[in-house]
């Protein structure tokens, strides 16, 4: 398996099909392949050797998609940089990976100049924006125009394809080493599960530095579909792009779905002008979708099917899939819709106790995963690698249980579990109870220090527009749904929850406030 095989296959079989459409511009597979081969040639001409790291700090774009193909084509290794990071975190990732080239677009030229001065391995900064090339940087388009195409280096199998840094919520981030086999075996699960085929027109609105979006990019290449990149998420603009480009599929976090529905309701006249009937597939991840949000989405998009994936960067990134057939009333009644699905075709999943023994079905333990998608390890961190991968199994740190039918239910990050008075409280269970409260739009549940009980259950709640409620109302609502020791003992009402770039609530940020108090 190798990163560029979907591109090669589509150049051969669909040479004139639109590979990418964006802002009125379209590139066929033949045209895209030519640009990728020339960009790879430019990297080689700049002295990039086999296995060297090439970083990119950019918003979503056609050029980002070219980067994802051209770097392996040149025999180099990807290092997509999280643009939400501070300059110190960006510098850390460049130094830690010893990146030799950094590609940047307009919003990040200033930080690129700042970090380049302190990164001794960085030989070149390439400007991939549309303005005047900053002093000291090379121009992306000029490099492509002035370089000859090169043959694909054909790195493959267990060769390192990319270093993908995890969010630095507990100190500096770790570099996850993913091979060509890791990435392509994971992407293959999309056509194998029936969630993607050659007719797909995929809107990429999740940040492209994130592996969830990259997995979609790989999937589209494998089936020979069409990419539609969108620079950043804005709900109204997203609806316009869906209508303009006749998008058929999009990957979103539930929070992004909710924002999109809110925009449609707040702008009925503009919404009526947009034909979004082309959208037939909505995939979501980062967190579960509540039944209320699913029902609301179905009402707005009656022709759309749903699929949810669970995984992590270390799994390239998908381990389980809950397909369209489990997003209906029967699945909701049976509880299957509250699961994260079953293991994908190429993956094994088990739930184990602290000694690594598989626990009985229905018993909560740690989720572990084995398959060709499991990372090679953490870059320059052999001890962390040995702790995470044991006997070929990736220990996720997630708590969950499996039912008799092999459906996996995620209950919490093990580190997010609240221990109150000796009882284990899984925040996801409390959040599920809160989600059905008529005044609650979003919630995050954490443990806060308590002198007597060790930890106390605390809820941070974002209310629906115009709604109000009280701690007593929240507690009464939860009392009908969960055990007494799980009910929030305190509540904070907030304007918004701290979110990662892909819509995950940053509970560490919330906990940090209370640990300092």
Brief characterization of the structure:
The protein has 517 residues and is of the alpha/beta class.
Please tell me about this protein's structure.
The protein is α/β, with parallel strands linked by helices. It folds into 3 domains: 30-155, Rossmann fold; 189-413, ANL, N-terminal domain (Rossmann fold, 3-Layer(aba) Sandwich), CATH 3.40.50; 417-516, 2-Layer Sandwich (GMP Synthetase, Chain A, domain 3). 33% of the residues lie in helices and 25% in strands. It contains 17 helices and 27 strands. The strands form 7 sheets. A 7-stranded mixed β-sheet has the order 11-10-12-13-14-15-16, with helices on both faces. A 5-stranded parallel β-sheet has the order 4-3-5-6-7, with helices on both faces. Strands 17, 18, 20, 21 and 22 form a 5-stranded antiparallel β-sheet that branches. A hairpin with a 2-residue loop joins strand 20 (389-390) and strand 21. Helix 2 (29-45) crosses helix 3 (62-73), helix 2 packs across helix 6 (140-146) and helix 10 (254-266) packs across helix 12 (291-300). The longest helix is centred in the first third of the chain and has 17 residues, at 29-45. The chain is globular. The N and C termini lie far apart (52 Å). 50% of the residues are buried. The mean pLDDT is 92.
